Amino acid sequence: MAFQKKLCLALEKHPTYPGQFISGLESHIKDRNQFKNCLLPCTPVRTEGSRSAKLLSLSVCLTDLCFAFCCFSVGTFGTNFPRLIVNQFKWLDGLLDSQDLVKKLIQMVSVSPVPIQHDIITSLPEILEDSQQSEVARELSCLLKQGRRLTVPILDALSRLDLDAGLLAEVRQSAMTIVPSVKLEDLPVVVKFILHNVKAADAVEVISDLRKNLDLSSCVLPLQILGSQKKLKSQVQASSSMSQVTTSQNCVKLLFDVIKLAVRFQKDVSESWIKAIENSTSVSDHKVLDLIVLLLIHSTNTKNRKQTEKVLKSKIQLGCMPEQLMQNAFQNHSVVIKEFFPSILALAQTFLHSAHPAVVSFGSCMYKQAFAAFDSYCQQEVVTALVTHVCSGNETELDISLDVLTDLVMLHTSLLMRYATFVKVCIFLGKLNPCQIRKLFYILSTLAFSQRQEGSYIQDDMHMVIRKWLSSTVPNHKQMGVIEKMYLIEKQKGNLDLKLLEEFGKSLVEDFPSDFVVDLSPTVDGSFLFPVKSLYNLDEDESQGAIAINLLPLVSQSELGRVTVSPMCLSPCFRLLRLYTGEQNSGSLEEIDALLGCPLYLTDLEVEGKLDSLSTQEREFLCSLLFYALNWFREVVNAFCQQQDAEMKGKVLTRLQNITELQNVLGKCLAATPGYVPPPATFDSEPREAVPSVSAAGPGRKRNGKESLKHLSRQIEAGTPLAWLQSYRPYFRELDLEVFTVLHCGLLTKSVLDAEMHTEACEVVQLGPAELCFLLDDLCWKLEHVLTPGSTRRVPFPKASTDIGFSHLCQRSPKEVAMCVVKLLKPLCNHMENMHNYFQAVTQNRDVGDEPGVNIQEHQLMSFCYQQLLLTFRSLFAWNGFSRQENTDLLRSALQVLAERLKPGETEFLLLEELISDSFHYLLNFQQSVPSFYCAFILTQLLIAIAEKPMAGWKKEKMASLAKQFLCQSWVKPSGDREKGSQFNSALHTLLCVYLEHADNILKAIEEISSVGVPELINSAKDGCSSTYPTLSRQTFPVFFRVMMAQLESSVKSIPAGKPSDSSEYGRLFVEAFLKLAMPLLDYSFKKHRDDVQSLLKNLQLSTRQLHHMCGHSKIHQDIGLTNHVPLLKKSLEQFVYRVKAMLAFNHCQEAFWVGILKNRDLQGEEILSQASEGRHSGEEEEDSADSAAEVPAGRGRGGRSPGWGGGSPALTAASPQEPSGSGAGSSEEDAAAP
User: Fold this and answer.
1) Which intervals carry biased composition (Gly residues) (predicted)?
2) pTM listed for this prediction
3) What's the mean pLDDT in 45-53?
């Protein structure tokens, strides 16, 4: 610095300065080496001080030199001269013309090569003066939109400039627009700039825009490229592709590092990002980015963990976070997600404790994806967590964890083998049911015989535990030992030894007839509680060699303890016999077909009026006899349902009829036998001590035995099928999925049979309503257990707590079950169309009035069938497995069946969206025939499940219209009573939510119900309802009120809050627009429409006065965001005052104009105290109306106001010439901006 000062003084004193110095300097730098030395810093030789002076810094002509060198490439002369020249501008002590310098630098950016542009832009913050930063920032913002090559230097320069809030928002918006198209390597810089210095008021809006524009799918190379690397012939090409993948992953990692820093050090970013995700309602709006950010926040901010868990659970329950989205996150961004592994493990453990099936399924999927995607340490932690769940003692955790381990051992056997030591701890668990034992020993046996050395240790432990269980005297332990031994034999031999199997089969074939079958005879010897009678014989024409199942004698001897074979073994032994026979004869059961049609030794089952005279022992004996008979028929149907012989098919249908008849009798017996515990039908769990007794009286009412039996009989006659046997499901043998192939048979109702097939009624056996009802009820029960719905909002299924009654079903995966149901869709559609036609005919006959009366029993039976059909469809299409990519073909097959009903032969090549649309319209056709409000509710839920793949705009309108139609329909039972009850209210609650959520204007919909439906209800009779909304009655009003208030609150919360500065900014824009567009019109309209013009200006005065109050408010609260808008706003308001004066002068009314001084007030209208004394001294009083402005001589003009925007503000009063001067046309407050 001393050298520079001395040199400057010497040059200034020289007589030839500056001409000789400049010419000498120009000749000196013609030598490029000397020029380079001038540009480089000097290293001090002695300690006298630094001589790092840059001689060239003394002249502004550097820009001309830079222009010259920009024409050459960087490497032309071996030195980057433009960079060296631009660097000199950073150290200039002063600039003669900074404006000119900046203009030349900006011009150089437009013509220079990219490297030089980069150097100039990054140097601008050090070169610019403070007054130039806003102008240059706008130039850089425009340059940012024009090209993508300078994104990084521009954003780097902008981040170092001191910008006001408005300009920063403008520049940030420019950066936001390039997010979708920016290069991947530049994306972290862009996101960092957007999140930099974001304010709390703008954070939610900014992050919401960033979520919409930031798509991680474009940041990852397609998986097809990764798969094709193996096929590349050139190693150079393969290594190049791998390099691109690595670069892509590194860029994504840098992106999330930027977000992580913002989340950690900017509190508003973390909370606003959670809020932005929470505000998203559409399923399609949620991306992989949201899931990763939630994991990032959970891992980074301990204060937001509870909120993060809550939001994530809510999104999973609503179906917004499907498992496919999580799979994409783990597969494509495992490098990023691995850092959040502790949070992933904690969330998975938490989700497994949830009561919601979708959340539990999501947690189990997190375990599987973490095991597959991460390293050995993470895999060990996953296995340890799963084993902890197994040993926790919680049934749900145990089942889910075993399912996860089963999937892992199937997909990643070699990986899981490393941690077999942890898994084998589960061998020593003693409290497991058979289903759990099967899962556990499938896992252990697979690991034990995986041809690895570690497997031998597990084999030793398994042999030890099996010997222990088999030698135990506890039946449950012995049962576990048998199951475990069978799995061990299967893995050791592949399957059972043929000789052993032959001996076993021979013993089974000989023992079963001797234990359970007898020759059919008219009389049976012995003394029993009831007389023996042969019933349900389908082979009456075969008198020679007829057989019967010796059931009643076996049950009687079992009750007395005098039999070696228990009747409980009848159904299991028959199942084993038919499986063996089918295996030996390629599926044919002709060798044992006599068991299909043979009768049972029972007793007279005409129990009507006889139960009251029976003792408790006799009633319990009768109940047990019926349970054994029903379970026998169920196993017979399981065995012969797939046989192709026509006679066998007819007998199977007859056995289904026998089952429905026996169930009616059993229901009556159970109602008369409270406290009865049936014999176990399956052996997968400990026997129950008691079961809920059948409530025939209904909730809250008590009846004695006779009244209860009579009430139940009326229920059965009224057609309430199967409801009284729901609590006894675990005591029935499980129906196999193959049984439902019987649904391919047609449905013949009684009316059709009488009208069209009366001559063949005794010869043709068809699937009737009662049998269809029985099959559909069981199918729905199975699907609810195994097919987990995507969200409670769509399908509110209760979660099954145990696997009792699902032993065979649980051995199949949900996908296998879904495939079975898809194969049944055609017959299910046939049955549903039959139901539609039946109820359409009933409705038409009712409208015509020529029907003598509705058969209530038949109507309710058909209505229940319709309900179960809709439930079956809903269970299938709401399955969350359809959201996974691997099940897309299965979903397409299911939709194709429905679409085929509308467009036969045209659906093979339709797109998935077209199939969804056709399926939606097909199901929508059933809206006119639904017989009950609950069926309407299920149909609505089914359509939502179909439509949300995805939900298009027209589907949303259809859903709102359909829900409103059901709400505006009167629902009456066949008996004439209006539908009501808890089920009705629950369905009404959901259906009303669907209507309001899908309505175009939710506030208008709520207003219509409140202004139309509620007054109609108030004016109706005591038991009446609204005529427009018949579902709105005094009983359902609380439901309507609760839903409308909840939806109203949610709707109001979703309205985005405006920024405080919006009112000032947009108020100014309105005033400016009024001045530009409206005032010229008023100039020429004043004479002809004086009153209208005066009224308009008077109304506008109210708004301008409020804007004036906002200016005072900004001063009191020192709100920078508002204060920045005050000068321009004041200027516009003052322009308005004098523009009105100009209008009056144009119309020769200038004498009607005065200017008055108004005091400053805040938003509440209170006077600002700092101006109070000034107001008192001036003697001016503020008037609230346009008619009372203080009169001041017009010639004073601006002299009558206080200077500065913080002072008083003038008011105008314009009066017409014909009116007194005190009558003003309008007024406005205004003040000039402070200089």
Assistant:
1) 1196-1209
2) 0.70
3) 40
